[in-house]
């Protein structure tokens, strides 16, 4: 038995690829065809209702390409983008890097899809806290990557223990129903949590295991009194009914008995629609599957220029625009202009070039920012765009 996961060595050596890319290299080298190209990574369309997406995964893409005989231009990680805009350009001989296209697209698509969904939820959440509880929906080897993508996109905290090791993020979480079921008594489980778990962890008690949420919320408040930070409702779909009414009952009951400072956290099947319905009466949301398995940001890669006779020749397959491109942006907002990469004089002087050199001839020339810096950049941009429709 084994874990069926690729190693870092497999990624860096190009083993993780589609067979037709390997055959492409074999054919080009057998015919002694060495052509320098520019390959553009872009998303020509976004999921229905999406006006923007968040570009993430760049650090891992750079890790894959560093030391290879290529030059890489890219948007900064965390940049919001619109359909059709170039996100990254690789310049080099096709047979030197074509086998990495599979892995690059997998990294950028998966990352950007998760980060975009997290950003949409964060934009809709107003000032409410979003906790990412989605690791059980993905293969465990992806845990740090999924936590990173969700956090960058705007989730306020992640639950993965491994993310403290890999990302430096302190994990957040409450308690599972299993703990309460094993104790057989909610009060005893809550008291054990309070007595054993370090004081720096907020006392947020799960209150829907055996009894009505309103009843258990009051039980938790009377058990922990001033030490109670909040209650979490993880009501299953078969018992949920009108979730807003349930939350209103819990809030009213806590307030009635003098526990107005107790927060309410709701988890279980939360997506955009339910978040909007509850955001004015809920203090925090635990969100999992809708972020772990979001609509796909369909990033593709295409050769758009070939270097011939000392000049770059624009060329592309049907349905794609020939020529390597640059994006110019004037903030606030996504006021973008797309022009040819080699024609910087075509854009107004007060616009910023978004694609920057990150690797030149295999050497990293721009240090990737930290996960906290990227998240801050995303949140700044979210203030400049409308709410998701």
Describe the 3D structure.
The protein has helices at 8-13, 19-30, 58-65, 94-97, 101-124, 143-153, 162-167, 177-183, 186-196, 213-224, 237-240, 243-256, 272-278, 289-292, 371-382, and strands at residues 36-42, 53-55, 71-74, 79-81, 86-93, 129-132, 157-158, 204-206, 230-233, 263-267, 284-287, 300-308, 311-314, 325-330, 335-340, 352-353, 356-360, 363-364. The chain is an alpha/beta fold and 389 residues long. It has 2 domains: 8-115 and 296-382, nicotinate phosphoribosyltransferase (Alpha-Beta Barrel), CATH 3.20.140; 123-292, TIM Barrel (Alpha-Beta Barrel), CATH 3.20.20. It has a 7-stranded antiparallel β-sheet. A 6-stranded parallel β-sheet has the order 7-6-11-10-9-8. A hairpin with a 2-residue loop joins β17 (356-360) and β18 (363-364). The longest helix has 24 residues, at 101-124. The radius of gyration is 25 Å and the shape is elongated.
Low-confidence stretches: none
What proportion strand? Answer: 15-25%
Strand order, main sheet: write it out: 13-12-1-5-3-17-18
Can you tell me the CATH superfamily of the largest domain? nicotinate phosphoribosyltransferase
Largest sheet: 7 strands, antiparallel
CATH class of the largest domain: Alpha Beta
Q: Classify the fold: give the CATH topology of the largest domain.
A: nicotinate phosphoribosyltransferase
Q: Indicate the radius of gyration in whole angstroms.
A: 25 Å
What structural class do you assign from the helix and strand content?
alpha/beta
Kindly state the percentage of residues in helix. 25-40%
* Residue-averaged pLDDT: 96
Q: Do you know the CATH architecture of the largest domain?
A: Alpha-Beta Barrel
* Total helical segments: 15
């Amino acid at each position: 038995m084994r874990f069926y996961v690729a190693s870092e060595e497999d990624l860096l050596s190009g083993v993780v690829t589609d067979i037709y890319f390997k055959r492409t290299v074999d054919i080009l080298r057998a015919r002694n065809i060495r052509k320098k190209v520019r390959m553009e990574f872009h998303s020509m369309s976004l999921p229905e209702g999406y006006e923007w997406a968040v570009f993430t995964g760049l650090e891992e893409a750079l890790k894959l390409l560093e030391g290879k005989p290529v030059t890489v231009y890219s948007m900064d990680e965390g940049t919001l983008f619109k359909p059709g805009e170039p996100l990254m350009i690789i310049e080099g001989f096709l047979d030197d890097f074509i086998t990495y296209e599979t892995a690059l697209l997998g990294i950028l698509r998966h990352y950007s899809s998760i980060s975009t969904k997290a950003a949409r939820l964060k934009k809709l959440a107003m000032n409410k806290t979003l906790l990412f509880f989605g690791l059980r929906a993905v293969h465990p080897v992806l845990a740090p990557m999924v936590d990173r993508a969700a956090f960058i996109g705007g989730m306020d905290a992640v639950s993965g223990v491994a993310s403290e090791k890999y990302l430096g993020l302190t994990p957040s979480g409450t308690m599972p129903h299993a703990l309460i079921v094993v104790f057989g008594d909610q009060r005893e489980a809550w008291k054990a949590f309070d007595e054993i778990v370090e004081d720096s962890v907020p006392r947020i008690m799960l209150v829907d295991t055996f009894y009505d949420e309103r009843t258990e919320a009051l039980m938790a408040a009377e058990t922990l009194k001033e030490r109670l930070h909040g209650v979490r409702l993880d009501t299953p779909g078969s018992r949920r009914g009108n979730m807003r009414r349930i939350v209103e009952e819990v809030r009213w009951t806590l307030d009635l008995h003098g526990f107005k400072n107790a927060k309410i956290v709701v988890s279980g099947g939360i997506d955009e629609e339910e978040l909007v319905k509850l955001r004015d009466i809920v203090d925090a949301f635990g969100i999992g599957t809708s972020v772990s398995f979001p609509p796909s940001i369909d990033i593709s890669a295409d050769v758009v220029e070939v270097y011939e006779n000392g000049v770059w020749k624009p060329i592309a397959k049907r349905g794609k625009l020939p020529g390597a491109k640059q994006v110019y942006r004037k903030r606030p907002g996504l006021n973008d202009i797309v022009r040819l990469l080699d024609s910087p004089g075509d854009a107004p002087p007060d616009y910023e070039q978004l694609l920057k050199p990150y690797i030149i001839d295999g050497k990293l020339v721009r240090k990737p920012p930290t996960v906290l810096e990227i998240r801050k950049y995303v949140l700044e941009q979210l203030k400049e765009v409308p709410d998701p429709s």
